[in-house]
Amino acid sequence: METLRYSSKKLLTTTILCGVGAAIFLWLFLNPDSVAHIRRLRLFATGFGHVFLAPALVLLCLGVAWRGALIMVGDRKAVEALDDHLVITTWWRSRRIAWADFGNAEIRLAGWGKHKAWELAILYRSGDMFGSSTAKLALGTTELHEARYQDFVDALNAIGSRSASGRPQRSVIESEALAPSSFDPDAALARYMARKAEAQAAAPVVPAARPTFGRKGL
């Protein structure tokens, strides 16, 4: 079945940056007198910035760093499609979605201005008052190349459609061929050239026409 993992390098980078960020905001909180002399940081010296904003940012950075570390030392699975359900693990929680509740998967461009990034959005039926929910995952944090985003989404939708209709799942060989990580451009090119050579060898050989000179009939 389909499996998508987080990038170990991106997890490590995010964990380190958030850890450093937590240390910086903690210093701002513990040293309001020094911060008051820094024009751009005076917000954290008194009032709302010191009492609420700085501690909140410390906790936020620590939470992201801790979650990134947990994912990094684990199996790093972001999305796993199994026989009877789908598991999607974001930075904040892990969801188990039965294929019977699966609605649709698509890629979206989220964010604003220059800070837009592609995300995986999975619509599924939930038991809350709204009836449906959407699980979102930042694809830029995974090992999947941007050129393969749509292929992965198509694979998830295909598995969901087969499960909903009661048709049998693909074999292991077919699933591995469908998985984005199994695509090898060099092997694909080699297969194409081999098929082309076979087609050329099987084609009948047409003898070259004898050259003629002068007017026709002479």
Account of the protein in words:
The termini are far apart. This protein has a four-stranded antiparallel sheet, with no helix packed on it. It has helices at residues 8-30, 32-35, 47-73, 149-165, 172-178, 185-202; strands at 3-5, 77-81, 85-89, 94-98, 102-110, 117-125, 132-138. Strand 3 (85-89) and strand 4 (94-98) form a beta hairpin. The protein has six helices and seven strands. The longest helix has 27 residues, at 47-73. With 218 residues, the protein is of the alpha+beta class.
Shape: elongated
- The spatial strand order of the largest sheet comes to 1-2-3-4
Mean pLDDT: 79
Distance N to C terminus? 73 Å
Number of helices: 6
The Rg value, from CA coordinates, equals 28 Å
The main β sheet shows up as: 4 strands, antiparallel
**Using DSSP, what is the number of strands?**
7
% residues in beta strands:
15-25%
Helix content: 40-55%
User: Which structural class matches the secondary elements?
Assistant: alpha+beta
* Low-confidence segments: 167-186
How would you spell out the order of helices and strands?
EHHHEEEEEEHHH
Set down the secondary structure blueprint:
Elements: E1 3-5, H1 8-30, H2 32-35, H3 47-73, E2 77-81, E3 85-89, E4 94-98, E5 102-110, E6 117-125, E7 132-138, H4 149-165, H5 172-178, H6 185-202
Antiparallel strand pairs: 1-2, 2-3, 3-4, 5-6, 6-7
Helix pairs in contact: 1-3
